[in-house]
Specification:
The chain has helices at about 25-30, 50-65, 80, 125-135, 155-160, 240-250, 275-289, and strands at about 15-20, 35-40, 40-45, 70, 85-90, 95, 110, 120, 140-145, 165, 180, 190, 195-200, 205-210, 215-220, 225, 230, 260, 270. By secondary structure, it is α+β, with helices and mostly antiparallel strands. The protein has two domains: about 5-80, Alpha-Beta Plaits, CATH 3.30.70; about 85-289, 4-Layer Sandwich (Metallo-beta-lactamase, Chain A), CATH 3.60.15. α4 links the parallel β8 (about 120) and β9.
Length: about 290
């Protein structure tokens, strides 16, 4: 629970604040940029929420914070905010909220589909979220993008008995006993509308999930950089092999999608698969230049 006595001095005065336990994961300012902003090595409140709707969204950002670093002097509505996750993004795809410190606040996503619901990467094992997922039909499959974002996957497997899919190259002690390891670099259809795409580079076993040739869940492989105004990836935070990651990015040009939904970084929606391909080509050219 955030403490007012530890509040960062660069928060604007008001009910909401960020304290010194913040790890600058980016969750709050990616989720609600109208209220929160990055401040070098931490997040801060740069504008207090105005009106009931804005305040309710700030409560949701408080709940999504992996370290409980966001506080408020007014907690009314917090219980109601808990029940709004997973938070819809578009159509049947939602943001799970309740990010985990174990994955440095990486975003996880819920896909509600008639053929069986999918959890992409793992949120915190919070009873309110798990109960809500149960109400929405449970979890039939969990896909893990790479070893950094597995968080509480074991708790979700225990609750929903969902098989877990991950590339074998990223398996370790935290993922021992995983039911469906994937080998090699070729894409693997998990269902007619779900394609597991190995994209090594960030880690040896990094992978993306493509849903309905529309939504690309990219883990820490690819995201939108608002400062540059383009898609991007990070050589600094590449834990395996940067040239391999660049080749994996080039392989994504073969696929159609209009959404990039990352674990870390800003999501991006293009107007068409062709526009997204152009965005990706521009990003690759910049990173190879």
């Amino acid at each position: 629970m955030a403490q007012r006595s530890k509040s960062h001095p660069d928060n604007v005065p008001g009910s909401f604040f960020v304290d010194t336990t913040c790890i600058d994961c980016g969750t709050c300012y990616e989720y609600l940029p109208s209220v929160f902003r990055e401040a070098e090595d931490h997040s801060r409140v740069f504008h207090q929420p105005e009106g009931p709707s804005d305040r309710f969204h700030a409560l949701k950002a408080l709940l999504a914070c992996p370290t409980g670093s966001i506080g408020t002097d007014r907690t009314e509505g917090l219980k109601e905010a808990q029940h709004t996750f997973p938070d819809p993004i578009e159509e049947e795809v939602s943001f799970c909220g309740f990010t985990s410190e174990k994955s440095f606040g990486a975003w996880s996503y819920f896909i509600q589909r008639a053929a069986g619901n999918v959890l992409m990467d793992s949120p915190r094992a919070v009873p309110a979220l798990m109960n809500r997922l149960e109400q929405l039909g449970g979890v039939d499959l969990m896909v893990l993008s790479h070893q950094d974002d597995v968080a509480d996957h074991g708790r979700y497997h225990e609750r929903f008995r969902c098989p877990r899919v991950m590339h074998r190259a990223d398996l370790g002690e935290a993922t021992s006993g995983l039911e469906r390891p994937v080998d090699g670099d070729e894409p693997v259809p998990l269902a007619p509308d779900l394609l597991f795409i190995p994209t090594p580079g960030h880690t040896a076993g990094s992978a993306c999930l493509l849903y309905r040739n529309k939504f690309l869940f990219s883990g820490d492989h690819l995201w939108w950089n608002p400062r540059l105004g383009m898609l991007s990836a990070s050589k600094t935070y590449c834990w395996h092999h940067w040239p391999t990651q660049l080749r994996s990015l080039e392989r994504l040009l073969a696929y159609d999608f209009t959404w990039v939904l990352p674990g870390h970084g800003t999501s991006h929606r293009a107007g068409s698969p062709e526009a997204m391909r152009a965005d990706l080509e521009a990003a690759i050219a910049r990173m190879k230049g």
